[in-house]
Design a protein that fits this description.
By secondary structure, the chain is of the alpha/beta class. The chain has 17 helices and 25 strands. The chain has a domain at 3-242: Aminohydrolase, N-terminal nucleophile (Ntn) domain (Glutamine Phosphoribosylpyrophosphate, subunit 1, domain 1). The structure holds fructose -6-phosphate (F6R).
Length: 583
C-alpha cells in the first residue's frame, strides 16, 4: 500500500534520501510516485505514474535540498495518474498521505463554497486544502493540524510541509502507521522502518492524533491537547543489508531460505506477559489471507491436542458479525504487518467488548501489537516480498507452541530440535521439474483432508497471487460432490497427505481424480507408493504439530518456480500490496 518518506537535515541531499526511502518501500505495492522538496526556499513537486524509475528519470539528484517529502501511491480515490499521485500542494501546504479521509466529500463541499478548486479526484488534495483553509483562521501550524485531526474522519498518516516554516517538517497520524527516525543533524519520517534503515535504525512511533514538529536537530511531539509528550526511541535489530536480496533472484526466495533461522528464532524467543491459557473455554482466531490460513492450522491443532473449541474467521467478516463470546473467550489476531485494517478493526471490536485479546505479530510496535492485551512476536525479520513465506512459517511455529502450552503436553513438540535442519533439507529439493509440468495450465487443484486442507488453501493462494494461475483448494472428500466435473485429462491436482489416519481415505480420493485423467503431484511424509500419482514429493515426517512447517515449503517453492517460468513479477505481484491498510 502507499508509502511515505520525508527528510529534514543539513548533511544529506533530501532528494536522494527520499528516493532511497521510496525504493525501500517498493515492496508495499504502488502505482505512482512523487516527491516535493525545497530548494532555494522554493517548493518543487515532481510526480509520475508507474514505477519509481519513471520518477527518477525526471529528478535531478544534483540539486541541493535539505527538506522534502515523498510518496508511493496505491490508488483508492481516483485512478492511478500523475494528477492523482502525491504530494499534493494547495497554497501554503504540501502533503503526502496514507489512508483514507472518509468525510472528504463533505469537506470538499465546504472548500468549493470557499473558492477552492481541485486538480485531482483524491481525498488527499481535499485534506491538504482543508489544512490550508483552517490555517487562514488559526495562523499557527500546530493549532491548524490539531484542529484538522478533530475534523478528519477515517485513517491517515500525513507528512506536511508549510511554506511559512521551512525549518520544520510536520507529521500527524490516525490509525495509519507513521514513524519518526532520528539521525545526527537530520531527522526522517516514514510509513515503515525499511525506508530509513539505510541511514539510521533509531525511530519513534507516532500515536493516534499526535502531531510531530521535526527540525534538523529536534523532534517535538504533541498530543491532542497540544501538550508536548515524551516518546520512547526504538532500535531496529535487523540491518539494511538484511532487507536487501543477498544474491537471491527474488526476495521471496531469499525469505524462504531464511525459514530455518526464523523458526529457531521464533520458538526460542523470550515470551513475556502471556495469557493464562487455562482460563479459556473457547478461542476465536481472526486474520486475513495467509494469516487466516495459519489460524486454520491453529484450530486443528488446538482442538485435537488441547480439546478447546476454536472458531476461525476472516477479519473483514468477523468485525461486522454477531460474535458469541464471554469472559472465558480468548480472541487471537494473526498479522505479519500488524497494520491490516480489517484485523485491527476486529481487534478494536473485541477490546470494546472487554474480551481478552492476544496478537501474533511480526512488526514490533505495530498498531495491532499495541492495541492487544497480550502479544507474541514472530521473529521473521523484515519480510519484503508481497507474498508471505517466512512470516507464515513463523506463525505456524507459534501455533505449535500455543498448542503445547494449552495441552501441557511437551511430547507433541518432540521433534522441535530437528526442524531447522529438516526445513533446510526440504528447501533444497528440486521443485523446478514439477513446476515445468504445471506452469502452462490455467486451472490447478489442491486437495487434502484435515490439517492438510488448511495447507492446500495456503498453497493455492500462493500460486494464485504470484503466478496469476487460477487454483482452488478442496477437502479431498468433497470434490466428488460437484467440482470433480472440472477434472479432465492432464488437469494438475496437487494432493497432500501427511496424516497416517487419513492416508487411505485421501488416496481413494486421489484415485478418483486420477481415473478422470488428472496429472497428480503427491506430497506426502509416508512411504506409500503406487500408480495413483504422476510425481511424488517426499517430505520428512515429524510430529503433527510441527508437520505443517515442512509441508508448506514445497507449496511455496512450487508457486515460486511456476511464477518464475511465467516471467511474473514475483516480489511485487500485480494489484497486491504488502500491508493492506484499507478496508
Ligand atoms: C499472502 C499474504 C496476504 C496476507 C494478508 C494479511 O501471501 O501475504 O494474504 O497474509 O494480507 O496480512 P497481515 O499478515 O500483514 O495482516
Amino acid at each position: 500500500m502507499c508509502g511515505i518518506t520525508g527528510y529534514i537535515g543539513k548533511n544529506k541531499n533530501a532528494i536522494k534520501v527520499i528516493i532511497d526511502g521510496l525504493e525501500a518501500l517498493e515492496y508495499r505495492g504502488y502505482d505512482s510516485a512523487g516527491i516535493a522538496y525545497i530548494t532555494d526556499n522554493k517548493l518543487k513537486v515532481i510526480k509520475e505514474k508507474g514505477k519509481i524509475v519513471n520518477l527518477k528519470e525526471k529528478v535531478d539528484l544534483n540539486i541541493k535540498s535539505t527538506l522534502g517529502i515523498g510518496h508511493t501511491r496505491w490508488a483508492t480515490h481516483g485512478e492511478p495518474s500523475k494528477e492523482n499521485s502525491h504530494p499534493h500542494t494547495v497554497n501554503k501546504f504540501t502533503v503526502v498521505h496514507n489512508g483514507i479521509i472518509e468525510n472528504y466529500l463533505e469537506l470538499k463541499d465546504t472548500l468549493l463554497k470557499n473558492g477552492y478548486t481541485f486538480n485531482s479526484t483524491t481525498d488527499t488534495e481535499v485534506a491538504c486544502a482543508y489544512i490550508d483553509y483552517l490555517y487562514k483562521e488559526e495562523k499557527d501550524i500546530l493549532k491548524t493540524l490539531n484542529k484538522a485531526t478533530k475534523i478528519f474522519r477515517g485513517s491517515y498518516a500525513l507528512g506536511i510541509i508549510c511554506i511559512d516554516d521551512l525549518d520544520n517538517l510536520y507529521a500527524v497520524r490516525k490509525t495509519s502507521p507513521l514513524i519518526i527516525a532520528k539521525g545526527d543533524g537530520e531527522n526522517y519520517i516514514a510509513s515503515d522502518v525499511p525506508a530509513i534503515l539505510k541511514y539510521t535504525n533509531k525511530y519513534m512511533l507516532l500515536d493516534d492524533n499526535e502531531i510531530a514538529k521535526i527540525s534538523v536537530s529536534d523532534i517535538k511531539v504533541y498530543n491532542d491537547k497540544l501538550k508536548e509528550v515524551t516518546k520512547e526511541t526504538y532500535e531496529f535489530e535487523g540491518s539494511y543489508e538484511s532487507s536487501m536480496k543477498c544474491g537471491y533472484d527474488h526476495f521471496m526466495l531469499k525469505e524462504i531460505h531464511e525459514e530455518p533461522i526464523v523458526f529457531s528464532n521464533t520458538v526460542n524467543s523470550k515470551m513475556d506477559n502471556l495469557p493464562d491459557f487455562s482460563k479459556y473455554n473457547q478461542i476465536h482466531i481472526v486474520a486475513c489471507g495467509s494469516a487466516y490460513h495459519t489460524g486454520l492450522v491453529g484450530k486443528y491443532l488446538i482442538e485435537k491436542y488441547a480439546n478447546i473449541p476454536v472458531y476461525v474467521e476472516v477479519a473483514s467478516e468477523y468485525r461486522y458479525k454477531k460474535n458469541f463470546y464471554d469472559k472465558n473467550t480468548l480472541v487471537i489476531f494473526v498479522s505479519q504487518s500488524g497494520e491490516t485494517a480489517d484485523t485491527l478493526a476486529a481487534l478494536k471490536k473485541a477490546n470494546d467488548d472487554n474480551i481478552d485479546t492476544l496478537s501474533i505479530v511480526n512488526v514490533v510496535g505495530s498498531s495491532i501489537a499495541r492495541e492487544s492485551k497480550y502479544v507474541i512476536y514472530t521473529k521473521a525479520g523484515c519480510e519484503i516480498a508481497v507474498a508471505t513465506t517466512k512470516a507464515y512459517l513463523a506463525q505456524l511455529s507459534v501455533f505449535a507452541l500455543i498448542t503445547s502450552w494449552i495441552s501441557k503436553d511437551k511430547n507433541i513438540l518432540k521433534d522441535i530440535d530437528k526442524i531447522s535442519n529438516l526445513i533446510e533439507e526440504t528447501i533444497d529439493k528440486n521443485y523446478l521439474d514439477i513446476a515445468k509440468q504445471i506452469y502452462k495450465n490455467n486451472n490447478i487443484f489442491f486437495i487434502g483432508r484435515g490439517i492438510d486442507y488448511a495447507l492446500c488453501m495456503e498453497g493455492s493462494l500462493k500460486l494464485k497471487e504470484i503466478s496469476y494461475i487460477n487454483s482452488v483448494a478442496y477437502q479431498a472428500g468433497e470434490l466428488k460432490h460437484g467440482t470433480i466435473s472440472l477434472i479432465e485429462k492432464d488437469t494438475p491436482v496437487i494432493a497432500i497427505a501427511t496424516n497416517d489416519e487419513l492416508l487411505e481415505k485421501t488416496i481413494s480420493n486421489i484415485k478418483e481424480v486420477k481415473a478422470r485423467g488428472a496429472k497428480v503431484i503427491f506430497i506426502t511424509n509416508s512411504d506409500v507408493t503406487g500408480d495413483f500419482y504422476d510425481y511424488i514429493i517426499k517430505i520428512p515426517k515429524v510430529c503433527e504439530t510441527l508437520q505443517p512447517i515442512l509441508t508448506v515449503i514445497p507449496l511455496q517453492l512450487i508457486a515460486y518456480e511456476v511464477a518464475k517460468l511465467n516471467n511474473c513479477d514475483i516480489d511485487k505481484p500485480r494489484n497486491l500490496a504488502k500491508s493492506v491498510t484499507v478496508e
